[in-house]
Design brief:
By secondary structure, the protein is an all-beta fold. The protein has strands at 11-13, 21-28, 34-41, 47-50, 58-67, 71-72, 75-77, 82-83, 87-90, 97-99, 102-104, 107-116. The chain has a single domain, classed as Jelly Rolls, CATH 2.60.120. Strand 1 (11-13) and strand 2 form a beta hairpin. It starts with 10 loop residues before the first strand and ends with a strand.
Length: 118
């Protein structure tokens, strides 16, 4: 695995191995662990339903849709904290979430995540 700073500002394959790409814009492990990604969903990409485990604490994520796909690419979440057409705020460690297949166009999302200890 590459050190985190070598992943900055480079497109990388998304964790779900489902066609989307991510670019780490910023991140820290201390004092508050967080990451800021730009996500790119091209035609045919998707994210299957899942939850994101954390070793300890509570995981939060704020997704801001910068550009919607022309068709598909819808974010689905069982229990969002807040949702609007462009803003998605949720607990990825607790709420199952997914993105439907992008049928046309490209979807871009700015994704900020952090873990609150305790």
């Amino acid at each position: 695995m590459k050190p985190w700073h070598r992943k900055l500002w480079r497109w990388d394959t998304g964790r779900q191995n489902s066609g989307y790409e991510k670019m780490l814009l910023l991140g820290a492990k201390w004092p508050l662990p967080f990451d800021l990604y730009l996500l790119r969903f091209s035609t045919g990409s998707r994210i299957p339903p899942h939850t994101d485990r954390v070793q300890s604490g509570r995981h939060y994520r704020l997704n801001i849709v910068l550009r919607k796909a022309r068709a598909g690419g819808d974010f689905l979440c069982e229990q969002p904290i807040y949702t609007s057409p462009r803003i998605k705020y949720f607990r990825p460690d607790r709420a199952e979430h997914s993105v439907s297949e992008v049928k046309a166009g490209t979807r871009y999302v700015l994704s900020l995540g952090w873990v609150r200890r305790g």
